[in-house]
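Researcher: Next sequence.
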Amino acid sequence: MDIAHLRDFIAVVDAGSLSRAAAGLHVSQPTISQRMAQLESHLGVRLLVRGPRGVLPTAAGTTLYRDAQQLVRQFDRLQQHAADEGHGVHGPVAVGLPTTVAAPLAPALFSWVKAIHPGVHLQLFESMSGYVNELLLAGRLDVAAAFREDDAPRPSEVPLYSEELYLIGSPGPGVPDDEVRLSELGAVPLVVPGGNSNLRRLVDRSFAAVSLVPRIVADVESLGTMLRIAEGGEACTILPLSTVRVLGAGRDVGVRRITEPAVRRYVALRTAAEAYEPRDAVLAVRRGVVEVTRRLAREGHWPGIRCA
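Model: Next structure:
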């Protein structure tokens, strides 16, 4: 088994199909099938389950996929590091950002990297928080923003900022325009992401703290869709203030700070230090994220956050 076998296996799992993986690798399907059979024979374990709709990794295959991602990326880094020695900070850096973080941060971070470290090839991944965390654990990312319940120090993390969450939409008559108590939201219809999202877990936990169950009328995995539903008036959502401002939600949409208690979350930068020591390029981009975040907050372009 060599690095080429691992690249082929990753391609098959990513494609979910032997034929699609073969096309992407520019080889025939029998060739890629033979390579997978050889890999399974070499390891003495079944890695893929073949079916009419494609292939899926077994439990052993999932473990190999995660480890292979890290090994292949580390091998590529070694090659890149050797090629870039003596040429400053170079190389690819994969950054994962939850959507509520990416909206204000991603464009400014791109500009910062382009101006300060033009040799760095930035790879930005934007998704819901649960998927970003999965990508980091799978070795697909070098650094990622993660939501936390508190600001306690953790290995391989750099605290970034904290923010309060707001009720977005029209909860009904008699509610003040600027803030609303959490205990008043028990009957308000809400659209929030599914259970794998940090935001959903935070909403559930916050409501439980005041002996309430949130009235979730739909699980929505799109930030823009949540805002459009809130603008429509049939349901509300719960989001940070910056998201509404940066994405330019309609002026008529209600924005109310949640109080008694406030709903606050913390954001930290995680690196995959358990898999490898961060390269210079990763450390540079991580410093850039901190610097850009502080500048955006200082200049009023990222409202509602409190830098760590």
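Model: The chain has ten helices and 13 strands. The chain has three domains: 3-79, 81-161+266-307, 163-265.
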